[in-house]
Design goal:
Layout lengths: L1 H12 L9 H5 L3 H15 L12 H14 L11 H10 L2 H13 L1 H14 L6 H4 L2 H29 L4 H32 L3 H53 L4 H42 L5 H27 L3 H48 L9 H60 L4 H133 L2 E2 L2 E2 L3 H79 L1
Helix pairs in contact: 1-6, 3-6
Length: 681
């Protein structure tokens, strides 16, 4: 704890906190000051928390700190079930709670700053599921998720750039080099402009024509890309439309022939199954897992057992098993017929419970399997979104296979050519190495001869002069070739521009009125489109209001009809009760006779039944007394009969063995007689 406090004091005294604490003064801080220091550290990590706690309510402070620690993923080192104690200690400003939090925060401030910065953008807004049913809300939420993904990609790219190792000096050097290259390019452009102006009779018109031609080419390329993108989008939308239609047909086919009662019964069955899983199955499994956990924890807390302890435990287990066996035999001996019936019912209930648990387990497994299959289907559908329609038909697949086969054959040919070139290159490199080695040897001999004759360095000077002359001649040839290429290019461009201008002149004359008509039509289309959008928005808003009113009125109508039906049923029940009460009252007061016999009222019938039940109760109590009085004698007599039964069984077994012995002796005598007769013959 002292090391922890010393670390906290050192960090608080350093930048950027600059506090002047020592161990005594820091330990003497009260709860509010400790909370303020914790808040200052959180404010350094996230600037949103930079405020004075005296200007904020304690409840708001606690909620804000808890949410910040949750975002930073701080896990308090508390015992099981004492998370509430941690919260209370943080609100009260207790030292043994705040000191570990400060130690954890001050250890990893840079990482936590990055986490807090990312949390402001990556923590999703909690939107209820019922609100997501609205199409507009769903669209906005989808765009929000797309923006989150774009932010993730941008942040990853920024981190990669930061970690790529590019320093500021390298960037500055690159900028200086690019500035030099730009100056050189500008000078070359100026020289080319002067040359064009001197050689081309009308340079401005040629430049304008070339610029217009380039712009038209770029525009044509952009239109081609837009066309391809729109075709792909149209293809994807058609595929999505087909999938949605197929899902709709499947849903209609699955719901065909089903009624409201069937759906309600299906929902009730599903609800009963879910309630059994939640109320019975899961609590039992949770209790069993907790028992296993407690037993494992108890075993882990116990000291290491020796062989003697293990032998003692095994002996104790054997004794316990023997005692259980004796109790089971005693229970079988003392079992009554009534207990047999109860045990039968218990066994049936246990069998039904086990079947129910098995069905619930299989239901949970099937649900997990269905969820996994749905996830796989969704993943495969998302993969199929990027597949071209051409790949989905047989002709496209055949063409793709043919092209891939041709590419594979071409790859083999190129690979063989590359291997041959690599082998030839290796031979040439080896020859070059040998030549270089021989040249170095000759050069060393020449240097030694120069040293002997007193003209050392002559060879190097001659080589340098030859190299400079070769470079100068190469540069001159390059300049001459570039100038010739530029002049030829300018003449070619001039010729092409003249040909194009003569060719495009009638087309331009034809395009001008068409452009005017196109511009007029675009303006009319824009005006009509704007009017159409306004009308569409108005109609959609009105239709949405009307649909909402219709839904609300339909819902209120269904509620009123349900209430009316309920009230009618209640009225019928009350009417039946009133009729029954009137008939009862009439019978009770009038005393009239029907077919010579007086009808009994419910009161009289219930009194008679109560009298009969009282008489039966008295008889049963009398029988119970007799049974209790004769229980010992009856048990003794039953024991005697059981002994007699065992005696008779033993006698029967003895008689049976004696009879078997007699039969064996008679059989043996018959065999002896048969053998004697056979010998006489």
């Amino acid at each position: 704890m002292s090391e922890q406090m010393k670390f906290i004091v050192d960090k608080l005294n350093a930048e950027p906190f600059n506090r002047k604490f020592n161990l005594i003064s820091f330990d003497a801080l009260d709860s509010l000051q400790l909370q303020q220091i914790l808040n200052d550290v959180l404010g350094e990590i996230d600037p949103q928390h930079k405020l004075d706690l005296r200007d904020e309510a304690p409840e708001d402070t606690a909620i804000r700190m808890f949410s910040c620690l949750r975002v930073l993923k701080y896990k308090p080192k508390t015992e099981q079930g004492s998370l509430q104690a941690f919260r209370v200690g943080l609100v009260k400003g207790e030292k043994h709670i705040i000191h570990p939090v400060l130690h954890w925060l001050l250890q990893r401030i840079p990482d936590l700053k990055k986490r807090a910065y990312l949390a402001r953008f990556l923590v999703k807004i909690d939107v209820p599921q019922d609100m997501l049913l609205d199409d507009q809300v769903q669209m906005v939420f989808s765009s929000y998720e797309d923006l989150l993904e774009q932010f993730k990609e941008a942040h990853k790219a920024t981190e990669r750039i930061k970690s790529s190792g590019v320093t500021a000096t390298e960037v500055r050097a690159d900028i200086v080099n690019m500035e030099d290259e730009r100056q050189q390019v500008r000078k070359r452009i100026e020289r080319l402009k002067k040359k064009v102006q001197t050689n081309v009779p009308n340079p401005e018109a040629a430049l304008k024509a070339a610029t217009a031609h380039r712009k038209e080419k770029e525009h044509e390329h952009q239109l081609g890309e837009q066309k391809v993108d729109q075709k792909n989008q149209l293809l994807h939308l058609e595929q999505r439309y087909q999938r949605v239609r197929k899902q709709l047909r499947d849903l209609q086919a699955s719901n065909m022939g089903s009624s409201a009662e069937g759906l309600i019964q299906q929902l009730e069955d599903e609800n009963s199954g879910n309630s059994f899983i939640v109320k019975e199955k899961l609590p039992r499994e949770l209790l069993a897992r907790r028992q296993v956990r407690d037993s494992l924890r108890r075993i882990s807390d116990e000291p290491t057992m020796s062989q003697d302890d293990i032998a003692a435990l095994q002996e104790k287990v054997q004794q316990t098993n023997e005692a259980c066996r004796q109790l089971y035999e005693q229970r079988i001996v003392n079992k009554k017929p009534v207990d047999d019936k109860v045990s039968l019912f218990r066994q049936q209930a246990a069998v039904v419970g086990r079947k129910k648990e098995g069905v619930a387990s299989s239901l949970a497994e099937l649900r997990d399997e269905v969820a996994q299959l749905e996830a796989e289907v969704a993943e495969k559908r998302s993969r199929l979104d990027g597949v071209d329609e051409q790949m989905l038909n047989p002709d496209g697949a055949k063409d793709f296979l043919k092209s891939s086969k041709r590419d594979h054959d071409l790859l083999k040919v190129k690979k063989r050519e590359m291997e041959a070139v690599q082998a030839e290159n290796g031979i040439k490199e080896r020859s070059l190495d040998l030549v270089i080695q021989q040249g170095d040897a000759i050069k060393q001999e020449a240097i030694a001869l120069e040293e002997q004759h007193g003209v050392g360095g002559f060879q190097n000077t001659q080589e340098n002069l030859a190299e400079v002359a070769a470079k100068k001649s190469g540069i001159d040839e390059t300049k001459e070739r570039l100038l010739e290429d530029l002049s030829a290019m300018v003449l070619k461009l001039d010729k092409i521009s003249k040909e194009k201008s003569t060719t495009l002149q009638p087309l331009i004359k034809e395009i001008r009125p068409l452009r005017m008509d196109s511009k007029t039509l675009e303006e009319e289309h824009a005006a009509l489109k704007q009017k159409y959008d306004v009308e569409k928005a108005g109609l959609e808003s009105e239709s949405s209001v009307v649909e909402q009113d219709v839904r609300s009125l339909h819902g209120s109508l269904m509620q009123q009809e349900t209430r009316l039906q309920y009230l009618k049923e209640c009225e019928k029940c009350v009417q039946a009760k009133l009729e029954r009460a009137a008939a009862e009252f009439k019978l009770y007061t009038s005393g009239t006779k029907d077919k010579g016999e007086k009808k009994q009222t419910f009161r009289e019938s219930h009194q008679k039944r109560m009298q009969a039940l009282d008489a039966t109760n008295k008889e049963l109590k009398q029988k119970q007394k007799e049974v209790r009085a004769n229980h010992a004698e009856n048990m003794k007599q039953m024991k005697m009969w059981q002994d007699v039964q065992q005696l008779m069984v033993a006698k029967r077994a003895a008689f049976k063995k004696q009879e078997e012995r007699r039969q064996e002796e008679a059989e043996r005598e018959r065999e002896i007689l048969a053998n004697e007769d056979r010998l006489v013959i």
